[in-house]
Design a protein that fits this description.
Blueprint: H1 2-16, H2 33-59, H3 79-101, H4 106-129, H5 138-157, E1 163-169, E2 177-179, E3 185-187, H6 188-196, H7 200-206, E4 211-218, H8 219-222, E5 232-241, E6 250-253, E7 256-259, E8 268-277, H9 287-296, E9 303-309, E10 314-320
Antiparallel strand pairs: 1-4, 2-3, 4-5, 5-8, 6-7, 8-9, 9-10
Helix pairs in contact: 1-2, 1-3, 2-3, 2-4, 3-4, 3-5, 4-5
Length: 321
C-alpha cells in the first residue's frame, strides 16, 4: 500500500511540469541546464516529501527497531506485489520523460528513470526494515526491480511501452455485520476503516478489494497487426475479494477476537479480459493534452469485461471500473 503514496507524489511532480510541457523535448545533444536543474529539483523535493509523508502516515505510530527482514509473500493475495510492479513501471516512465524534457540522451534517460523509481521504492523497503511493524521485504524489492526492468527493456527495445501495467477501482462500503467469538457484533466497515482508512482518498489507495490491476497489451506493436488501431489495447486483469487482513480474515478489536468464516467471506481471485485504450497514442496536436494523457494512462479505461473467478464464477460486466 505504501508504494502508492510514492506513486501519488510522482504524479503530482509531473503535473507540476505540465506548464513546462514535458513533451517539448530538446535534442539529446542540447542538454538544457535550466531544465535539468528544474527536473532535479522537482524529483528531490518529491523524494523528500514522499519520505516525510510516509514517515508521518505509517511509521511514527510504531517503535523503531534494528534492521530486519520480513517475508510477506502471499500477503493480500499478491495484490501488493503487482502494485509494486505497477508503481515502479510508471514511476520509471514519468521520470524518464522528465529527463528527456531536460535534453538528457535517451539511453541515459532510460537508466536515470529506472533508478529514480527504484530510489523511491527502495526507500520504502528500507524504512520498513527499521520498523517493528514491518520489515525489509525481499519479494517487494524484487517486484520493484521487475517493474523498473519492464520499463527499461521495452523502452530500449521498442522505444515505447507496449506492455503496460494499469489500475482501476473505486470506493467501496462494507455494510455487513460480523460477530466476534465472544458474541460482539460490529459493522464490517469498522474493520475496513481500520485497514483502509475512513476517507475516499485513503480507500482508493489502500483497499485492495476494490482495485484491479491490468496488463494492457498493444496488439498492433507486439504482433505487428497492421490493420489493428495503434491506440486499441487488449488487457488482462487481476483482483481478489474478501480480504480483511494481510494473510487471513482474523483480527483483534477492543480485546475481542474476530475470525470470519470461509463459507461466509471466502478469499478468492478474479481474472478479467477487456479492451483498453493507450491514451498516449490518441492523436492530438496539443502538447499539454499529450502530457495529460501520459499521466492518465496509468488508469484502465472502463469497457465491457469478462470475469472468471477462482471459485467457479463467470460474469459479464457491461462496464468494469
Amino acid at each position: 500500500m505504501k508504494e502508492k503514496w510514492a506513486s501519488f507524489i510522482i504524479v503530482l511532480m509531473l503535473f507540476s511540469t505540465l506548464s513546462f510541457d514535458v513533451y517539448s523535448q530538446v535534442s539529446p545533444d542540447s542538454l538544457q541546464n535550466s531544465r535539468l536543474t528544474w527536473t532535479t529539483t522537482v524529483l528531490s523535493i518529491g523524494y523528500g516529501t514522499t519520505t516525510y509523508l510516509l514517515n508521518e502516515a505509517w511509521y511514527n505510530d510504531y517503535p523503531r527497531s534494528s534492521f530486519h527482514f520480513y517475508n510477506d509473500w502471499g500477503e493480500w493475495e499478491h495484490m501488493d506485489k503487482i502494485g509494486h510492479i505497477f508503481s515502479s513501471q510508471f514511476q520509471s516512465i514519468y521520470a524518464y520523460h522528465l529527463y528527456k524534457w531536460a535534453g538528457v540522451a535517451d539511453k541515459k534517460s532510460i537508466t536515470y528513470g529506472a533508478l529514480t523509481a527504484l530510489l523511491f521504492q527502495s526507500t520504502i523497503e528500507v524504512l520498513d526494515g527499521f520498523s517493528s511493524q514491518w520489515g525489509f521485504s525481499v519479494p517487494d524489492f524484487g517486484a520493484n526491480v521487475l517493474g523498473a526492468s519492464l520499463f527499461v527493456v521495452q523502452q530500449a527495445t521498442w522505444g515505447s511501452q507496449n506492455i503496460l501495467f494499469k489500475v482501476s477501482g473505486g470506493v467501496r462500503s462494507y455494510d455487513q455485520m460480523v460477530t466476534s467469538n465472544s458474541g460482539q457484533s460490529i459493522l464490517l466497515n469498522d474493520r475496513a476503516d481500520d485497514l483502509f482508512g475512513n476517507n475516499a482518498p485513503s480507500r482508493l489507495l489502500k483497499d485492495y478489494n476494490a482495485q484491479t490491476y491490468w496488463v494492457s497489451l498493444n496488439i498492433k506493436e507486439i504482433i505487428n497487426a497492421k490493420k489493428w488501431p495503434n491506440w486499441l489495447n487488449m488487457s488482462i486483469g487481476y483482483g481478489a475479494e474478501n480480504m480483511f487482513g494481510g494473510f487471513d480474515n482474523s483480527w483483534l478489536a477492543d480485546d475481542k477476537y474476530f475470525n470470519l468464516k470461509e463459507r461466509d467471506f471466502p478469499r478468492y481471485h478474479q481474472f478479467y479480459f477487456s479492451p483498453d485504450i493507450d491514451l498516449t497514442r490518441i492523436p492530438t496536436k496539443s502538447k499539454f493534452v499529450k502530457s495529460l494523457l501520459q499521466i492518465l494512462n496509468v488508469f484502465k479505461v472502463p469497457f465491457p469485461t469478462l470475469e472468471i473467478t477462482s471459485n467457479g464464477g463467470f460474469y459479464f460486466h457491461f462496464i468494469k471500473f
